[in-house]
Amino acid sequence: MRKYFGTDGIRRIANTELTPELVYRVAKAGAYVLSKQSEHTPTILIGRDTRISGTLIESAMVAGFLSYGANVKLLGVIPTPAVAYLTRKLNADASVVISASHNTYEFNGIKYFSNKGTKILDSLEEEIEEVMDSGKIDELTAVSNKIGVSEYRLDLLDEYVYFFRKNFDDNFEKINKNDFIVGIDTANGATSYVAEKIFKSLGIRYKIINNEPDGININHNCGSTHLEGLKKYVIENKLSMGVAYDGDGDRCLAVDENGNEIDGDIIMAIISNYLKNKGKLNKDTLVATVMSNLGLHKYSRDNGLELMQTKVGDRYVLEEMIKNGYNLGGEQSGHVILLDYNPTGDGILTSLMLIQSILEANKKASEMTKIIKLYPQVLINAKVSSDKKYNYENDEEIKQAIEKLEKEFAGNGRVLIRPSGTEPLVRVMIEGEDQEYITKKAKEIAELIEKKLK
Questions:
Q1: CA-to-CA distance for 267 and 103, rounded, in angstroms?
Q2: Which residue, 291, 321, 375, 413, has most beta carbons within 10 Å?
Q3: Assigned CATH for 10-152
């Protein structure tokens, strides 16, 4: 069990749990682990979102890196995928994003990226933890002319804008329409300073909201976790569609012209169909997690695609993609990885691929979503003893209840039981055609698990 890192880096309440002292140790240990094979002075990039604690955490990270002897380039407020892209482009040894993604402003976090621009492996996070809590960290101290130096490189954000122009400019010049207007919600987060530049540079007509960050309004009733405001805005302004990013810009969800949600599964269906028709979907395969909707499975089967499944977490989706040469994967939450462009979820990239698909098809956003039928999905948490949360697999009564329901569904429903990685909970997720019925069954199975695993 890891002590500091969770499923997506380290994430805690800033300055009380994620203290400057802890951050300093994470930086020193991380610089050592990620650059120990290198014979040159390592260079590490740091980007952050708009949280009020961002500069505090950044300062502690810089101190840790410089103390180890690494040089640092400070990118300022910048989306996570931009950091991943720049890490590869500049041949940096590693990079860090200071963000708590979709969480509220009082949280902050640390995500490490390798020199390939990918989130680091679990094994490397475990090694960083070992170094942090060993006496070795005190030995990792540069002296004299070996101390690192830092520099501000806020200009590098323009390289990310150019990345989109290079890949999309020619096509959007042909397909843009004057009456196609996109609503953009930047969640008062990391995309606030760059989304508008990118849309403007590509000539896409847009209206933008929630792009005035003040340090504490990130994700507050806005962005991909709170679509209500964007839905209302799109309808009231008669827009063609809307896109919403999360706090650090690696997720995108959308809404159609009627304000209906377009989640990650629908987005992946639309983009996979677009790529397949152009002969650009590697091995005609889509990668998703076990939490993706049953509708995505049926869409894939009906359209001659393979659907590969991984455990929850975009890093596991990426690992599967790299391992087997696939180029499209993602999560229902809006993490979509387009590996031909960037090795991490990229909200702006996802939105541009979606917009491009819609414009080229010459259809309304609502028409495009008909490619896939999502099944109602219910998720209920069963509270259990921490030491028993994995025992459901060996309990006969629980197993029989699940098997009986799955047999009853006969392929038109699904039961997924998943212990929480961080809490004393077992998550019961059921999909089926009847919302009321699956809710009842999810409650019954959750109650049974609670009774048997207390």
A1: 23
A2: 321
A3: 3.40.120.10
pLDDT given for residue 313 in this prediction: 85
Q: Domain residues of the chain, as ranges? A: 10-152, 159-371, 377-452
CATH match of 377-452 with 3.40.630.30 = no
Give the catalytic positions in this structure.
Answer: 101
Nearest to 434 by CA among 415, 412, 416: 412
Q: CA–CA separation, 130 vs 128, rounded Å?
A: 5
Q: What is the pLDDT of residue 26?
A: 96
pLDDT digits (tens, 9 = 90+) for 243-287: 999 999 999 999 999 999 999 999 999 999 999 999 999 999 999
**Cβ of 235: how many Cβ atoms within 10 Å?**
15
How would you classify residue 28: left for phi > 0, otherwise alpha for psi between -120 and 50, otherwise beta?
alpha
Average the pLDDT over 344-358 and give the result.
97
Predicted TM-score (pTM) above 0.85? yes
Lowest mean pLDDT, pick from 80-89, 106-115, 237-246, 416-425:
416-425
Specify the pLDDT at position 421: 66
- The domain 159-371 having CATH identifier 3.40.120.10: the answer here is yes
State how far Cα 87 lies from the chain centre.
18
Closest CA to 247 of 57, 75, 102: 102
Sheet holding 377-383, edge to edge: 377-383, 425-431, 414-419
Q: What is the DSSP letter of 394?
A: G
Concatenating the DSSP letter of every residue in 310-367 gives: E-SSHHHHHHHHHHHT--EEE-TTS-EEETTT-SS--HHHHHHHHHHHHHHHT--HHH
Cβ(390)–Cβ(419) below 8 Å: yes
Confidence of residue 160 (pLDDT cuts 50, 70, 90): very high
Tell me the CA distances in angstroms from 276 to 168, 270, 308, 380, one per residue in order: 18, 10, 16, 36
